[in-house]
Amino acid sequence: MPEGDVVWSTARRLHTALAGRPLTHSDFRVPRLATTDLRGRRVHEALARGKHLLIRVEGELTVHTHLRMDGSWRFRRPTAPPPRDHRIRLALANAEWLALGYSLGVVELLRTGEEDRAVGHLGPDLLGPDWDLDEAVRRLRERPERAIGEALLDQRCLAGIGNLYKCEVLFLRGVWPWTPVGDVPDLEGLTTLAQRLLDTNRGHWSQSVTGSLRRGETSYVHGRRGAPCRRCGRPIRKVDQGERLTYWCPSCQPEPN
Residue 25: which of 79, 95, 92 has the closest Cα? Predict the structure, then answer.
């Protein structure tokens, strides 16, 4: 699933391509919105809220999309009609650019004043103007018995972290993923590190936690089951945690006694 930094970069690309120009084409390929036509309306802005994308359009309308697991936006010059590809859920174009939303998990049209229906439940956005470390930590601590590996993925606590950053920040802080939130030492420092990692990668399409962009060298534990830990050499482990997979080093992130 694309994480907050990728969604932020996608929003910036959408804004660059669409904002400030009237739409010359709109094609909602979802049954509920099949007759919706936004042609002639100017796009005011596109922005990210956690993992959600909001495209605000003239007339106090907002196109809300979510990439879910496999979604993406692609861009090209509007020299030909949008392809008849079943993966395309939404096509928006102006005189300069055609934006194609592939495999989008959510496509809906809201009144701009009612955006909270879609994103009002989210916690502070790690890459947004509303980022508030104290509020994020407060929300995490509301359930002190919860495993930190699950709590970090709860977008109601803080918005933008996905499985990659969850695994990597816990490794970097030496925290066993099943540690109860109430037992995590320096939760503020852990959360600050998560924000810093996302911030470092936003604006780039390649995500790296290690500092290397070479294939196979961009993470410490995520996606590396069985590979030697870059610190201690022990094999990285992987197991289901809730509905997601967790990668960790049993030596560098030992279970508390």
Answer: 92
Q: Which of 2, 82, 124, 177 is catalytic?
A: 2
Here the CATH number for the domain that contains residue 49 is 3.20.190.10
Catalytic residue among 12, 76, 87, 244: 244
* pLDDT range class, residue 241, cuts 50, 70, 90: confident
Q: In whole angstroms, give the CA distance from residue 63 to residue 120.
A: 15
Q: How far apart are CA 231 and CA 226, in angstroms?
A: 14
235 lies in a domain? yes
Beta bridge partners of 240: 245
Annotation marks residue 78 as catalytic = no
The dihedrals phi and psi of 176, each to the nearest 5 degrees, come to: -65, 130
Per-residue pLDDT tens over the stretch 49-70: 999 999 999 999 999 999 998 9
Q: Do residues 116 and 54 touch, judged by C-beta distance below 8 A?
A: no
Domain span at 114: 4-119
